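Annex B. Sample input.
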Amino acid sequence: MPHCQNYMQAPINRRQMLARCANGFGGVALTALMAEQAYGARVVQRPAVIPGAPDPNSPYAPRQPHFKPRAKNVIFMYMDGGPSQVDTFDPKPMLDKYNGKPFPMKMEPTQFNSNGNSLASPWKFKQYGQSGIPVSDLFPHVAKHVDDMAVVRSMTSMFPEHTSANYFLHTGFGLQGRPSMGAWATYGLGSMCEDLPGFIVLNGGLIPPGGLENLGSGFLPATYQASIFKPSNPPVANINRTEQSDTIQRNKLKLMRKLDQGVLGQMGKIDALESAVANYEMAYRMQMAVPQLMDLSGESKHTLESYGLNHSWKGTQTFGRSCLIARRMVERGVRFIELTCPGGSGDRWDQHGNLKDGHTKNARSVDQPIGALLTDLKQRGLLESTLVIWAGEFGRTPFAQGRNGRDHNPFGYSIWMAGGGIKGGTTYGATDEFGYKAIENRLEMHDFHATVLHLLGIEHTKLTVRFSGRDMRLTDVFGHVIHDIVA
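Annex B, continued. Sample output.
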C-alpha cells in the first residue's frame, strides 16, 4: 500500500544488522586499529572556537588561528578565462623583435593547436611607483598600487583547459567534489559576522566553467559552501519574509528547529539536515543584514564615482558595485569574498581571437573598480588586514592562435596579491624571455594555497578533515609557503 511522504523507514533490528555486517567486521576492526596513534594515523582537528564567541555551537563561530594572522579577510577577484601575462604584468621585449616571425621555442600541445607566429603585445608597459614595477596600459588604475602589490610572474597550473584548471585553482584538485578554498577558510576560522555567511561569491554574471562545484564545500559540512549573491539589489531571492509579522516567522522557525531536532535524535548526525537548520537561522538573520549591506545611499558621491557606478560601460558599473559591496562585507566581518567577472563585456578573458578587443573590454570592466577598492581599503585602514588576490586559472601563449588571438598557457603566468601581510612593491619568479614558461621560482597551485592560508594564520598541513580513510587538506600532500612575498 502506498505510504505518505512523511513515512520514515524503521531502523533495522539487531538480527538484521548482524546478518548484513558479518563479513565486514574484519574491516571495521582494521579501521579502528589503523586509527590508533601507534599505527601512524594522524587526525588533526581544526582550530578551537575563540572563547567568548556569541554562539560557540554555531558552525560560523570564530575560531583561533594556528598563529597570529596577517590577514583577517580575503577578497579574491577571479579573472575568468585566463588573462595574458605578456599583455598585463610580464613585459617581453623579445616578442617585439620576433613579432610575426616563427616562434623560436618548442611549442607544447595547445587546446586547439591552431598555432601561429610570435605575437607582440598590442599594449605598452610603463614603470610605476617607487618599486618601478612595469604594468601594461590596460591597467592605469591598478598600476598606481604596485607598491602595495606582489606580482607573481611564475604561476603554473597542471591543466590547460578551463574546467579542470578552475577546479584546480579553486579547490587544489583537478576534478569536481573538493571544497573550495573559501570553504576551507571558513571551516578553519569561522566568520567574524553573525548575520552574513562566511563565504560569499558576488556573481557579476559569469560563473566559472565547471559550475558551482568550484564554490562548493565538497566533503566539508554543507554550511561552508559559498552563498551566491548578485551585486544588484536584492542580491538573493526571497530575502524579504512572506509572513505578516516577525513573531509568526520566529514561531515557524522554532517549530522547524524542534521537528529537525526530533529527526536528528532518531537518526543521528546528518550533515544535510544540520546544515539546513544552520542555514534557516542564517537566512533569518540575513533579512535584516542584507538590505543594510546593499543600501549604498550612505556612500558619498565621490565613492560611487570612483568605483565606476556611473560609468558609461556597463561592465565597469557591475564590477564596481561588486567591489564596493565587497568592501562593505569586509567591514562587516565576512571571511572570504570572491568576485566573478561581469557578463556582457566580452568573452571572459578567453581571447582565442581578437585579443586586443577582448582584453580591452575586460580591463575596462575591472581596472577602475579594483583601483578604487585598493584606495578605499587603504584609506579606511582595512588593506593591511585584507588579502586582495587577482588571478585567472592560467595564462596565454606568447605566440598567436590563428592570426590575432592567444591559446591557453598553463606553463607560466602572472597573478598578484596585495594587502594582508603581502610584501608590497615586489615581483616574484620569472618566465623565459618570451613569457612562455616559468624558469625562476616556479610557483605551483598548492604553494599559492599554502601562502593564502599562512597569511590567514593557518598552518596548511594542520587544517585537515578525515574523509575516505585519510586526512584531506586544501594543499593535499604538497605546498610550501612563499615567504619571499610575505612582509
